[in-house]
Amino acid sequence: MRRGRLLLILALLALCGSAAAVPASAGAASHAPGVRTVPVTFTVVNDNETAVSCLPNTADGKTYTISGSLILPARVTPAGVTLYAHGLGYASYFWDFTAVPGYDYAGAEAAAGHASVVIDRLGYGKSSIPPGAATCVGSQATILHEIVRDLRDGTYTATGLTTTPRFGKVGLVGHSAGGELVEVEAYTFRDINALGVMEWADQFYSLGAYTAFGLDAVQCVLGNVKQVGSSSTGYAQFGTTDAQYDSLMFRDVDPAVEAAANALRTNDPCGQIESILTGTAIDILNVGSIHVPIAYVHAGDDGIFQAGLPWPSLQESLYRSTPKLTDISLPGEGHAVTLERGAPKLEAAMNAWLTARGL
């Protein structure tokens, strides 16, 4: 298995380095008045029911807890809800960022009348932290499917509510590597009403992104990196320094937001890292079967993708079966679109899209 991981490094990039975990900070302000936040938990089984293999690892099939928040308008519970999946280096705070005022995406959507579920995916934040090799792209997508089902059936825990809400419509949105997960979920399980893909494409990555992936693979071979705040090993840090991470994530950012985001950085399960590129090849063959409306969000100055290439339009061309493709362009912004200064434009565009989709 270690030999296979070493080959992965060579395939990604002939580059190596060392890494140390960055401590996370828990400091955050509350939501704006009038926005309700309900802690939620989901009981999930870490199986892989998709075509994206976990190799060189295996999903462990164990039962875990996913923690998050249901963020609602002040006085009503909408009939629809959107589930949000974060990318590498993040947790639910990417969507629910209150450390600096003005960047709370989920709060802004709640104020506009929309319900959101933001989660710490398996291996992150307050959710269960298994060994890093125990989960992969396929199992993470399967877990999203389980949560979608729970939201429809009301089979989850919503602390403080006498009745757990059931939602007739469920949207699914993913950012960065979370965009890959929501694509896999959508074409595998066909159980959602709308799909949002933010800052993800299945090809055309930059040298900086490949460098970060290569260094991730080195950390996975060494096998001694723990998840922040946990004793579980088998994790990797996407971007071995704040400077490397920030060069991939940010372009037009408030320094206070950048500092807070760096303090909140998480590590990523190695099984997920090691299956991302496998997943892209399978995605290219399958995203054309996604049959629900799609919002595709892309920033104009994204360090993850090759500058000068039309990667957004090429990715959009793969969505051949969607009845409605909504293009949301953010010129001059970087990869971390909810944390850039242009976040209000994103919030407004997504508000319009969610409204049109009945979410």
Strand content: 15-25%
Q: Please report the distance between the alpha carbons of the first and last residues.
A: 44 Å
Number of helices: 11
The main β sheet shows up as: 9 strands, mixed
User: Biggest sheet: strands side by side, in what order?
Assistant: 5-1-2-4-3-6-7-10-11
**Uncertain runs with pLDDT below 50, 5 residues or more?**
1-29
Give the averaged pLDDT, no decimals: 91
Basic shape: globular
Radius of gyration: 19 Å
Number of strands: 11
Q: Which H/E pattern describes the elements?
A: HEEEHEHEEHEHEHHEHHEHEH
Could you characterize what this model shows?
- The protein is built from eleven helices and eleven strands.
- The strands form two sheets. A nine-stranded mixed sheet has the order 5-1-2-4-3-6-7-10-11, with helices on both faces. Strands 8-9 form a two-stranded antiparallel ribbon.
- The longest helix has 17 residues, at 137-153.
- It has helices spanning 2-12, 105-111, 137-153, 177-189, 207-222, 242-249, 255-263, 270-273, 276-286, 311-316, 343-356, and strands at residues 36-45, 63-72, 80-85, 116-119, 157-158, 169-175, 194-198, 235-236, 268-269, 294-299, 325-330.
- It starts with a helix and ends with a helix.
- Helix 4 (177-189) links the parallel strand 6 and strand 7 (194-198).
Question: What features would you highlight for this structure?
Answer:
359 residues; alpha/beta; two-stranded antiparallel sheet; disordered N terminus; 11 helices; 32% helix; nine-stranded mixed β-sheet; 11 strands
